[in-house]
Amino acid sequence: MSNTIQSLRGMKDLTGTESELFIYFIENASKIAQKYGFSYIETPLLEETALFKRSVGESSDIVNKEMYQFIDKGQNDVCLRPEGTAGVVRHFVEKKLDRAGGTYKWYYYGPMFRYERPQKGRLREFHQFGCEVFGISSVYEDANIISLIKEILDFFGIGFTLKLNSLGCADCMPKYKENLVKHISNFKEKLCEDCNKRLMTNPIRVLDCKVESCKQLLENAPKITNSLCNSCNNDFEKLKEILDFNNISYEVDSNLVRGLDYYNKTAFEFVSSEIGAQSAIAGGGRYDRLVEFLGGKSTSGIGFAIGIERLLELVKIKEKKEDFIYIGVLDEISLNQAFEVAIKKRKTIKTHLEYTPRGFAKHFANAQKLGCNIVALIGEKELNDGTIYIKNLDTKEEENINLGDF
Ligand code: HAM
């Protein structure tokens, strides 16, 4: 039996090109969020389990089946965060910002944990980049958030479809749920086991069941978009108008209910057809009652999160790759000189210094392995005439130049 230890199922190390892309994404997404007036927030990875039960909802799959939950040494019921919104709302209420009034905009990124069945695009530890806004009820902010996500996806050259829905409010949603349950009662027993459970806990979740027979049975189900109260309907119409006016395309999908229970009014998902079955790159919406659910004073909220792993599948680095210099020596006596050159070069350019003396070919191979594009070598000859040998690995050009010109 092997005694090596491997990473847990659905969890992976981030290294090499992937980790470079990760940093590249965070830097640029952060800049865009900052341009929209967001500032950075970091909340703990571990929170009280009750936080997620009261926000994401006890009927959601996330809380029901997917939490990394345990009792800590102080007998506290805690869990690794399955998403980022709840922690930010907890902070907002804890700091009494609901009482202070005003608007607050935060962005965050980091790992989230869900004990799901791993598959392509679905991990147990994954990373999100998210934004949350408090204190703005205007539907223009819904459009603003959508525009922010679009700007991030556009920056990285990612194609997407925006799916849009309105989930109504405390006035119209309960009536809609009643109608839906009434409609379904005729063929309830034909729905899958999960749908039957959902009917008891949160009936609208049957609308996004992936089982083909359920989908067919629900084809003629009443649509929430036809049951909205005046206020929700006006907001939804206005949102569509703003998006149309700003050339942001969308598809209304009245079956888009989201897997978290805290949403009302606007709900959306950005999906891509290029990453397989787990097609949602980003999701979010309005959560005007969540602050209350967590014991605060009623405050409007809206936000989104991008799944970084799914997005990175699609990212093409836009900027030209930076130079990466490899400095090597052909003999031991040249190392002092090379060390001094490397320290100077690193002030402006990413530089690797190789300590082991080697021949030309071995240095080239090593440089390539490290991802360097320029090789600079010093040997006895170069030491004596004050030069350095340079080879550009992309163009294959090579020359000896004065050390001072390097
Ligand atoms: P969510 O739709 O559950 O929303 O997750 C957002 C994104 O995280 C998804 O669109 C997907 O790209 C990524 N994601 C989710 N689960 C996994 C997984 N198991 N493996 C890889 N990627 C995954 C939320 O989490 C909300 N907190 C978003 C939000 C913020 N709503 C308002 N504010």
From TrEMBL:
Coiled coil: none
Reactions accelerated catalytically: tRNA(His) + L-histidine + ATP = L-histidyl-tRNA(His) + AMP + diphosphate + H(+)
Location in the cell: Cytoplasm
Any one of the GO BP annotations: histidyl-tRNA aminoacylation
SUPFAM superfamilies listed in its UniProt record: Class II aaRS ABD-related, Class II aaRS and biotin synthetases
GO molecular function: ATP binding; histidine-tRNA ligase activity
Principal location: cytoplasm
Class of the enzyme per the UniProt entry, highest EC level: ligase
Domain Aminoacyl-transfer RNA synthetases class-II family profile: 32-315
InterPro entries noted in UniProt: aa-tRNA-synth_II, aa-tRNA-synth_II/BPL/LPL, Anticodon-bd, Anticodon-bd_dom_sf, His-tRNA-ligase, HisRS-like_core, HisRS/HisZ
E.C. numbers: 6.1.1.21
KW ATP-binding (keyword) present: yes
Binding positions (L-histidine): 83-85, 114, 128, 132, 258, 262-263
A GO term from the CC aspect: cytoplasm
Keyword Nucleotide-binding: yes
Keywords for the protein's UniProt record, in alphabetical order: Aminoacyl-tRNA synthetase, ATP-binding, Cytoplasm, Ligase, Nucleotide-binding, Protein biosynthesis
Description of how the protein assembles with itself and partners: Homodimer.
PANTHER family referenced in this protein's UniProt entry, alphabetically: HISTIDINE--TRNA LIGASE, MITOCHONDRIAL-RELATED, HISTIDYL-TRNA SYNTHETASE
Protein family: Belongs to the class-II aminoacyl-tRNA synthetase family.
Protein name: Histidine--tRNA ligase
Organism: Aliarcobacter trophiarum LMG 25534
